[in-house]
Amino acid sequence: MVRMNYSARFPYARPRRLRQSDWIRRLVRETTITPGDLIWSLVVHEGERDEIPVSAMPGVSRLSVAACAQAAKRARNLGIPAIAVFPFIDPAKKDAAGREALNPDGLVCRAVRAMKEAAPEVGVMVDVALDPFTDHGHDGLLRDGRILNDETVSVLVEQALIQVKAGADIVAPSDMMDGRVGAIREALEREGHQDTLIMSYAAKYASAFYGPYREAIGSGKLGAGSVANPGDKRTYQMDFGNADEALREVALDVAEGADMLLVKPGMPYLDIVRRVKDAFALPTFAFQVSGEYAMIMAAAQNGWLDADRAIIESLTAFKRAGADGVVTYFAPKAAEMLA
Ligand code: PBG
Fold first, then answer.
1. Of the listed 94, 264, 277, 319, which one is catalytic?
2. Is residue 17 part of a domain?
3. Does the beta carbon of 129 lie inside 6 Å of ligand 1?
4. What is the pLDDT of residues 140-176, one digit of tens each?
5. What total of structural domains would you count in the chain?
6. 246: domain CATH number?
7. pLDDT confidence band for 112 (50 / 70 / 90)
8. Whose CA is nearest to atom 6 of ligand 1?
């Protein structure tokens, strides 16, 4: 804890002295955001069109594989260290088991190869989860309306290995199955991928803030119907009322071999970022998710706030809360502003 040793009182102590002009404000600023703190989340699609706008996320488009390669070069030029890629899978390729996730020539693998070829200096992070590939939209396998944890983990291990063979530098399990980090780590070691990083979505909450992402990657309504499958992801993603549980989730993932931790969503969960960082002192990231992006852009389009200022303020807030970096759809725009 900081010791508050204010012996001076007003008028000798005047905190506004430190705010009187830009030079002194810059000099005493405790937290800054730089392009080096950003992971650019983007969506890739199968088609030839370079960009297909996502209506719920003004300014974000699904990119073709070729456009992803250009994006990687843009990231390099802007000083953005890494890109996280999410796929919009052709609905005709989806099934209940998400088999397309295991296609070594599938969309994610092609995008990874194209990006690593275009800009090998830029890190590429891939999502490990089945939701873009399943027709029911869940992150795992379903039987009789229940998510099958251990069977799902076996598939996720295969998915991770395929993506790593395509060139992914970081695998990021976002599925919230129990035991998947350890299983993936063991497989990576066994197959000679000891340098592959795991960024675990260690504390991922069942959240309304993922709404626009469903349009972005084209994952449908979750099939509702039973107690175990109530049409949302609450049997595997965390309850938003819980914070101690986040520390237990993180502890497990750290023990299983996670290199980096992710808290998701971002801004409503800054307390979790702070607690995770304080408790584990590991590289800790926050995901400024689709709904957070959409809120800022929608308000800005209505003239209700200044998007540029809100973007920099929100990104700085993540770092102030203890995050080492932020996964964000704003990455290129923010990096341009910060240049
Ligand atoms: C699913 C996944 C989700 C996001 C990233 N990976 C959605 C979900 O868990 O339902 C959300 C990203 C965003 O909202 O920006 N594996």
1. 264
2. no
3. yes
4. 999 988 999 999 999 999 999 999 999 999 999 999 9
5. 1
6. 3.20.20.70
7. very high
8. 174
Type and span of the H or E element at 58: none
Q: Indicate the helix (H) or strand (E) that contains 173.
A: strand 170-173
Helix 270-280 vs helix 244-255: angle between axes, to the nearest 10 degrees? 50
Site to probe by mutation for ligand 1, drawn from 54, 86, 234 as the one with most ligand atoms within 8 Å of Cβ, is: 86
Q: Kindly report the backbone phi and psi dihedral angles of residue 204, in degrees, each rounded to the nearest multiple of 5, phi listed first.
A: -120, 125
Q: Quick check: is 125 in a domain?
A: yes
Q: In the predicted model, what is the mean pLDDT of residues 279-308?
A: 98
pLDDT of residue 6: 60
Whether residue 245 lies inside any domain: the answer is yes
pLDDT of 4: 65
Q: Whose CA is nearest to atom 2 of ligand 1?
A: 174
* % of the chain exceeding 70 in pLDDT: 95
DSSP string, 307-339: HHHHHHHHHHHHHHTT-SEEEETTHHHHHHHH-
Q: Is residue 22 part of a domain?
A: no
**Cα angle for residues 139, 144, 147 (degrees, 5° grid):** 25
* The model's pTM: 0.96
Distance CA 136, CA 142 (A): 9
Q: Which of 201, 213, 238, 297 to mutate to test the pocket of ligand 1 (most atoms within 8 A of CB)?
A: 213
Residue 139 Cβ < 6 Å to ligand 1: yes
| Backbone torsions φ then ψ of 17, nearest 5 degrees | -55, -35
Reference 272, options 238, 236, 243; nearest CA is 243
Q: Is 204 annotated as catalytic?
A: yes
Domain encompassing residue 255:
33-338
Count of H helices and E strands in the chain? 11, 12
Pocket flag, ligand 1, residue 219 (CB < 6 Å): no
pLDDT digits (tens, 9 = 90+) for 58-68: 999 999 999 99
Helices (H), the chain: 22-28, 65-78, 107-118, 149-165, 180-190, 211-217, 244-255, 270-280, 290-301, 307-320, 331-338
3-class state of residue 141 by DSSP: strand
